[in-house]
Amino acid sequence: MKKIQILGTGCAKCQKLAAVAEEAAKALGVPYELEKVTALDRIAGFGVMFTPALVVDGQVKVAGKVPSVEDVKKLLA
Known about the structure:
- This protein is an alpha+beta fold.
- It has helices at residues 12-28, 40-45, 69-76; strands at 2-7, 32-37, 53-56, 59-63.
- Helix 1 (12-28) crosses helix 3 (69-76).
């Protein structure tokens, strides 16, 4: 199971990234757990300076932008 984390304070871009990540995981048929990380100390713990950020299985994959569904599929595959 993939652990997908969305790092951000809950802004519109953060919500968009969560939706894109879910859509990509469902399209791939990948079992996943989605967690929204909003605490600034936890976000900083990943070394992320710009939100939103996408973390897959503990690794920061994207920060500071919302990638396309196709790009997220590649990151999850």
